[in-house]
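Severity: low
Component: inverse-folding endpoint
Summary: output formatting inconsistent between runs
Steps to reproduce: submit the following structure tokens with default settings.
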């Protein structure tokens, strides 16, 4: 059995790393579990323009800066994909490979996963033209034509990133208006490589060995149009990565963690932080805020 930590943090995105910093600086023993690269969705973000102190920074660079600070504090970085959490005075975190970590407090900062389109051809062409990460795969589409699905901040930000590679880019939105910030919309609308197709939804992806056609349908007339494209990037929201918590009854009906202003769930010693929480604004800065609150309140839980 592993050592018993004061605090075990599940997830090494901005919320998890912020929680680790605050908990460790409070004198607690801290382990942080992650099954991928530190940074969460920041790693897959091309440009971050709204994080205080940086006018503009690459997502990978910001992730590395945060992780360096965590490492300097000598937080234990643990590997594992968590599949279960058992409550008790000492909580047990069970990973897919059978490893069990123990902690007096658990902070869940697992973030979200991108929603699929759930249309014919999507699964067939994953990594063959369908990608959920522009920064990961954008360079493969040099001088080609791609489509981005979605009208929020992520969709428009990643569209702008992709324009450095592609010849042409379609943005497909279900409604007539974007949901993104005005400053990002303005950049997109002025970009010569971008064409906006409004009031349409994707209904099928076609191709042979790779994507060559995206079928879209007008939501009003039901007319179907076939777009010749080489790549498709869906950005239509996300689902919280909290399936391992269902049995604890601390989730809402969409799977987000219900917390109070101290980031506490209804189970003593279990906290939520970041995008996996019920909240109105999911941004790096709000995730960092949640992590700081959860990390600090972990100290009070153990010592007051």
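Observed output (run 2 of 3):
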């Amino acid at each position: 059995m592993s050592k018993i930590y004061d605090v075990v943090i599940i997830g090494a995105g901005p919320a998890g790393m912020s929680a680790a910093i605050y908990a460790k600086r409070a004198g607690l023993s801290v382990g942080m579990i992650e099954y991928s690269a530190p940074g969460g969705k920041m790693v897959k973000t091309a440009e971050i323009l709204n994080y205080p102190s940086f006018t503009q920074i690459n997502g990978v660079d910001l992730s590395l800066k945060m992780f360096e600070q965590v490492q300097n504090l000598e937080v234990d970085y643990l590997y594992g994909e968590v599949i279960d959490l058992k409550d008790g005075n000492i909580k047990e975190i069970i990973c897919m490979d059978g490893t069990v970590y123990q902690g007096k407090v658990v902070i869940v900062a697992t973030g979200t996963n991108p929603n699929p389109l759930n249309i014919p051809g999507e699964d067939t062409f994953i990594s063959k033209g369908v990608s959920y990460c522009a920064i990961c795969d954008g360079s493969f589409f040099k001088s080609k034509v791609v489509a981005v699905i979605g009208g929020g901040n992520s969709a428009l930000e990643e569209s702008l990133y992709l324009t450095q590679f592609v010849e042409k880019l379609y943005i497909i939105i279900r409604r007539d208006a974007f949901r993104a910030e005005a400053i990002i919309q303005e950049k997109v609308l002025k970009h010569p490589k971008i064409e906006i197709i409004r009031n349409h939804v994707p209904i099928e992806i076609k191709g042979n060995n790779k994507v060559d056609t995206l079928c879209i349908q007008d939501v009003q007339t039901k007319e179907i149009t076939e777009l010749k494209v080489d790549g498709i990037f869906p950005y239509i929201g996300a689902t919280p990565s909290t399936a391992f918590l269902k049995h604890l009854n601390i989730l809402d009906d969409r799977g987000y963690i219900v917390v109070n202003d101290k980031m506490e769930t209804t189970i003593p010693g279990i906290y939520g932080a970041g995008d996996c929480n019920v909240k109105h604004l999911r941004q790096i800065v709000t995730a960092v805020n949640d992590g700081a609150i959860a990390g600090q309140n972990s100290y009070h839980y153990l010592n007051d």
